[in-house]
Amino acid sequence: MVGVANAQMPGSNTRVTAQAAPGASYNFSIPPQPLAGAISAFSRVTGIDVVGDGGIGRGVGSPGVSGNLTPHQALTRLLAGTGLSYRFTNASTVAIQRPNADGGTGAAPAGAIALDTIDIQGETAWGPANGFVASRSATATKTDTPIIEVPQSISVVTQDQMQTRQVQSVNETLNYTPGVFAGSSGNQFNSVGAQIRGFNTTPWGGAMFLNRLRSISNSDLEPYALERVEVMRGPASVLYGQNEPSGVIGLVTKRPTEQPFHEVRLQGGSFGQRGGGFDFGGPVTEDRSVLYRFTGLMREGGNGIDFSNDRRAFLSGAVTWRPTDATEVNAFAMHQRDDSKWNYGLPARGTALPNPNGRIPITRFIGEPAFDYNNTEMTVIGYNLQHRATDNLVFRQNLQYSHEIWDYRNVTPGSLQADLRTLNRTASRDRYSWDTFAVDNHAELKATTGVLRHTVLFGVDYRMRKGTEQGTWSGVVGPIDVYAPVYGSPVFLPADNFGNRQTQNFTGVYIQDQIKLERWILTLGGRHDWADTRTVDTFNLGVGGVTPTTTQNDRAFTKRAGLGYEFDSGVVPYVSYSESFMPLSGTTFDGTPYKPTTGIQYEAGVKFQPKDTNLRMTAAVYDLRRQNVTTPDLDHPGKSIQIGEVTSRGFEFEAVASLTSNLNLTAAYAYNDARVTRSNGADLGKRLLRTPPHLASLWADYTIREGALNGLGFGGGIRYVSASAGDSLNTFYAPAYTVVDAMIRYDIDNWRFSVNATNLFDTQYVAACANVNQCNVGRVRTVLGRVSYRW
């Protein structure tokens, strides 16, 4: 059978029906990738439909194509090394075929255009997506599942989106993602801090996953290393164990490529920013049983805050080995080092609130330039193994080990004195070190029972984390005038006055069943976790000189259920229920260890991904509650009890589209009402810190594909953040703000020249506040230029 490649290709929902001219020239920029994705990109550029034998392109990669070429020239390059050929059947249709498909004449067999569906494996949940619209994800199910079948809100930021916006951090990657407030920590360089649906999302809080494993704790992984960033909003403990109710941020690194791929790039911009990078990949052996990928980057420069010069060095390597047709191992290693200064922000009086002395410059640094530093280092090695025992049974093992160091020394802000310009300060020093080992083993079985089709997942995972911490919080340093700073105050730091060694062991057993009955899609899952923590206080001796040691053992069972219905039009309404748990350190007045905090979410929504266009839309409403929250114990002053509750309710909308080969679009809006709903304190009924109720964003870019300006692209985005509570009692708010971003680029042959501007109009704004003494300011206008060459 043969079929239209764009009509119903797994991972690509593009159909182009415009008439094309095979003799005309088009500007192509199609990177090496699986053949299905390359053919889909070719069709979007030219308007030519592509047909081929069923199964003809399975496992085949394309070397890609770049430059101003005719369709004939482009197809010749796209199919180079694949063993396949092509033939135009009319002006707007081309057939992909095996050599001698007709027995030697080279012509298509009789009846070849009586079409069905081409069976080419296109996008996978663990690989690149073509353009802005990803069709599949594994973050929410650990299986390669179409996003519209996932009964929970999920967004995917593709590599094309990251490259178009020239993102410099994971936080910037998430700026246009619905329900995610990625700027809550302000102008920071090497720390991921975001709010999802009103709740904190931090690596050490269980939100950050690298290649499906929680092995990194604090580092902001370089976006140039990533193929995609996925965000699943809401509780995720049923698959991942201990986790905050906010959700999961899944980082997927670049994998080796089937065809040779090479890229080098240089960049420079505002505040002395400069750097370069490279990305190479391709086959090691002629039979493509061994592939490689090697990526590196170095950059440094300011970020708009006085005395803040940031440096980053990143290097990664990956190898894919296929010893048999049924087995594949993807091994990788990476190392990253960041050197920077931590920007604590400025007092509310003079930023979010009026000050009779005027507005404090948002570029002001309140630390001591010669004293402060914030350095992180991360090394990760691991592999993803997959073995297909039968057509219906797959075993996977994902394993990682990481070593991380966070070493910082800071002067931190205190309160303003009576003149509202002299800022009291303190000093601190801290050093963390973590070693983490994580492994996840699971089996995926596809089976049929009567009229039900099942995708059953059964797994066991384990994570061990050993960490040390030592430092002091009692340093002494003089105050500073925030309007006329004089630096050089002596800093006194006594010997370290705290420290501990901590070992944590987490084990989980989980099962999931994705069930289909005609158009109905039912997802059920359950998991049991064991979480054990042992902490040794290395700085304080107990009775008899014995080092104090505390242990905490927690158990939890979490579950999830979701139901959806898929219409022919691509509309899938759904409802779901999900749970989370997170161990909590400490005890009540009588020494009883705290129970884990828990999360419960009810969500209803509708997803729309029509089969005849490259578009996905999602709308959802949710009710999310975090329970077992600590609140003051009124009967025992100074102690806490766990009767507190925080409730987050809201609505989210997202649209992502590559409407033609020329136009990309993302649009997002989120309303979130997150409040304390049970408490013994004065915060009852108050909004959560750093949680703006309204977030909205829009991005669009357009590329000219013909004429004298062929290859010229331009676009921009706008982000709106409403006012957010500045302290736990809501006595003041960080004002609302709007930021505009812009880009322009030019592609010619294998070259790309681009310029991006973040905060184009240099809006001065406060991103969010932690209290009246600390408001984190946003990034000032930053312009970054880049030139890259691919071959």
TrEMBL record:
Protein name listed in UniProt: TonB-dependent receptor
One Gene Ontology CC term in the entry: cell outer membrane
Compartments reported by the entry: Cell outer membrane
Topology class, membrane: Multi-pass membrane protein
Keywords: Cell outer membrane, Ion transport, Iron, Iron transport, Membrane, Receptor, Signal, TonB box, Transmembrane, Transmembrane beta strand, Transport
Sequence ranges assigned to domain Secretin/TonB short N-terminal in this UniProt record: 48-99
Gene3D superfamilies to which the protein is assigned, alphabetical: 3.55.50.30, TonB-dependent receptor, beta-barrel domain, TonB-dependent receptor, plug domain
CDD domains according to UniProt: ligand_gated_channel
Biological process, per Gene Ontology: siderophore transport
Listed InterPro entries: Beta-barrel_TonB (IPR000531), Beta-barrel_TonB_sf (IPR036942), Plug_dom (IPR012910), Plug_dom_sf (IPR037066), Secretin/TonB_short_N (IPR011662), TonB-dep_rcpt-like (IPR039426), TonB_sidphr_rcpt (IPR010105)
Pfam families the UniProt entry points to: Plug, STN, TonB_dep_Rec_b-barrel
Domain of life, per lineage: Bacteria
Family note: Belongs to the TonB-dependent receptor family.
GO molecular function terms noted in the UniProt entry: siderophore uptake transmembrane transporter activity; signaling receptor activity
